[in-house]
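Following up on my earlier thread - several people asked me to post the actual chain instead of describing it. Fair enough. Here it is, all 512 residues.
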Amino acid sequence: MSSDGTYGEYEVVCGIEAHVQLKTKTKAFCPCPNEYGAAPNTLVCPVCLGHPGTLPVPNAEAVRLAALAGMAFDGSIRSVAHWDRKQYFYADLPKGYQITQFYEPIVEGGTLEVQMPEANGGSVKHVGIERAHLEEDAGKLTYDGDADALVDFNRAGVPLLEIVSKPDIRTPAEASQYAQELRRLVRALGVSDGNLNEGSMRCDVNVSLRKQSTEAFGTKVEVKNLNSFSSIARAVHHEAERQLALLEAGDGDAIQQETRLWDEANGVTRSARSKEGAADYRYFPEPDLPPTRIDIDAVRADLARRFEEDHTSSHDRRLPFVELPSETRRRIQSPPLNLTADTALTLCENPFGLLTFLDSTVAHLNGNEGVIRAACNYVLGDIMGHFNSSKTGESGLTVEIFAAILTLSESEELISGKTAKELLKAALTGGDVGNDEKELRQYVEDNNLAQVSDPDQITAWCREVVDANPNQLEQYRGGKTKLKGFFVGGVLKKGNANPKMIDSIIVPMLDG
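Reply from S.P.:
Thanks for posting it. Predicted structure:
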């Protein structure tokens, strides 16, 4: 693959089908709990097991969440949802068919804005959404040591929103970033938790090659069994390389429309079965479900009540009641935060709510650019490091104390940067440094943490250190200017002096 993502004279054409489990309390068509991790086959009933004589009832919350997702990527929401029956026979599909939406999906059209990392050019990619439809999940097959298949039907009937992108993706990196952005979106909306390791978000990629500057598509191959974002990128790259080798060998007919499975251990795709078409599934309207009417205005009003407005509510939003990840990135890349694209991606992905914490802190500050920059650096450094190492969202640090530390260290220079870090660490780990700025000032005073900013005192200490080290002074003036650190360290041993003032006073002394 070249630097622009092309493969020889070919380019990748890729689309993604994302299956997102909706965050409802119950399953799609029955009252069984929608939960992960329960003992096998304990969250089942005659409806989701497909017993004769049972009738499904649509989950209204699933319909609302699907409509919300469609609104977020600017899709067209149908006012009437129709249901269809998809016939296929797998061991984990208890009814022998799946209730889905084939002919008239609940959402059509839309766009997802994808921010590429700086390492991949830093551009913004707009990937079209073909459709999004509701359906029910199948059960889960596992295999024991004797290769016997064990089936757990707890997942059978869980509501899924299948979001199908247009074939607008051109590189493995774009495929991975699209999937990551989709997860950010559904998490921000509360539509799904998007946990790939739990199967609540599963992505299949459709990959083909075509000659550059041509419109006709090549033969599409579907790749399944992708359980991480890096696997998505690797699978697209490997499949493109596999197809390229066949095309360059004049064996393009060997590229079949099929389903292949990603082998993570060996980094290859393996043929699983020929790809079924719509005729193979024998779709027809679901006879047990009437059309579901959707009052879009009522859905919007209901969703608006669920989202709590915050101090960013004046920002121009696609959905007035929630800020989407793409809108968040544009906001925090603008004043007063002015973060880079990569930093914005990191904060939007952070699971510990650090962006909300940073927003709240900035609201407490007086708008000083230097102080806000320091707040960003602490959040991205010490604070994020603490949460990543502890792997929890628990901390004793409050917005009030963090803003007070910044005020004392950056605005007033009452304490040094080193002391600020020590206070921050103490607060993060549950130490008692006070509950507000007044109490923090008292803590600093009681523990003699204030730095000395008296120029006469600092000048005296600097003179003492310089006069006490004539040999090092001679070496410094002979060209070993790195010895400045030696002299600064000597002054700091005299007392908790302001480092900036030390530098401005001692350098003229050393230069003579």
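The chain has a mean pLDDT of 92. That should answer part of your original question.
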